[in-house]
UniProtKB/TrEMBL annotation, chain A:
One Pfam family linked to the record: UCR_UQCRX_QCR9
Keywords, alphabetical: Electron transport, Membrane, Mitochondrion, Mitochondrion inner membrane, Respiratory chain, Transmembrane, Transmembrane helix, Transport
Locations listed in the record: Mitochondrion inner membrane
Gene Ontology cellular-component annotations: mitochondrial inner membrane; respiratory chain complex III
PANTHER family (UniProt xref): CYTOCHROME B-C1 COMPLEX SUBUNIT 9, UBIQUINOL-CYTOCHROME C REDUCTASE COMPLEX, SUBUNIT X
Name of the protein: Complex III subunit 9
Keyword Translocase: no
InterPro entries: QCR9, QCR9_sf
Family: Belongs to the UQCR10/QCR9 family.
Its biological purpose: Component of the ubiquinol-cytochrome c oxidoreductase, a multisubunit transmembrane complex that is part of the mitochondrial electron transport chain which drives oxidative phosphorylation. The complex plays an important role in the uptake of multiple carbon sources present in different host niches.
UniProtKB/TrEMBL annotation, chain B:
GO MF term list: 2 iron, 2 sulfur cluster binding; metal ion binding; quinol-cytochrome-c reductase activity
PANTHER family on file: CYTOCHROME B-C1 COMPLEX SUBUNIT RIESKE, MITOCHONDRIAL (PTHR10134)
Taxonomic source organism: Phaedon cochleariae (Mustard beetle)
Localization in the cell: Membrane
Topology of the protein relative to the lipid bilayer: Single-pass membrane protein
Domain Ubiquinol-cytochrome c reductase iron-sulphur subunit N-terminal: 4-70
Protein name in the entry: Cytochrome b-c1 complex subunit Rieske, mitochondrial
Amino acid sequence: MGISATIYNTIFKRTSTMALAVIGSAFFFERTFDLGTDYFFDRHNEGKLWKHIKGRYQ
Amino acid sequence: MKPANVSSYLRSVSQVVSNQLNTGKQIAILPTKPTVHIPFTGTSPYVLSRALPNGNVSITSGPAVSCQVRWAHTDITVPDWSHYRKDSTKSPTSKAADSEDSRRNFAYLMVGGLSVGTAYGAKTLVTQFVSSMSASADVLAMAKIEIKLAEIPEGKSVTFKWRGKPLFIRHRTQSEIQAEQTVAVASLRDPQHDNERVQHPEWLVVLGVCTHLGCVPIANAGDFGGYYCPCHGSHYDASGRIRKGPAPLNLEVPQHSFVNEGLLVVG
């Protein structure tokens, strides 16, 4: 029994475990996706956002 | 066979196929002599193959030369789909059971990944809409007031405007505190001990809205020395509790906190 068979039997075979895996990974996906897109936005708008130019006025 | 006859053959066959009754009466009439009667005894492929022209039929002359016979396009090759197929199942000798789990996992992983994305999107959408219903930052900023307690002398009740309503801050004297602490709770209409209504005994914070019909009571008036509503004569004591008159409930105590000794934040 290979690793793919183990994955299938433990996660994908039952709807309950599949749904649990989806919800669990959605939790981590949300974290990483939000952080990643925010990081990209900050990098893309480097020097334009208030938090970047705050030091000049305070 | 002459070309002019072909159409009549085809017609008779089409009648036989579409209307299987009276097959014996359908006769392909050839214009040439002698008249040929072809009795259709059945519709089996063999009988039809005998009746239909087969082989290399070609029409070379005659008024109806434009008609043509189209055969099945056996010259078109089936496309090669192997580029789209999984390597594990390409070979005819491979067993499906050998690669079953990995192929199945791939399909479920696709479904699961899409579900994760959908769940994230749905959660974000719901959060956006729900959070749009909550108060915005400027409203929240207006929802609190800070009160410097040093400006309120002992024995005075000061009125502030808070969320569009009057707010009474009362600096109670020791005698008032003593009086309110010793009131028998069971004798009250809306039984609440003084300690439930104040955080520091010297400071009473209540909304100046009569619980009867919403008038603004007058401070330091009435039979109990607290508040008196002039509209219908409700008497409140120095703890804002209803003691006499039509009002059913005590004056409402809003959420408040003493940030430090001299500062009260209401809201």
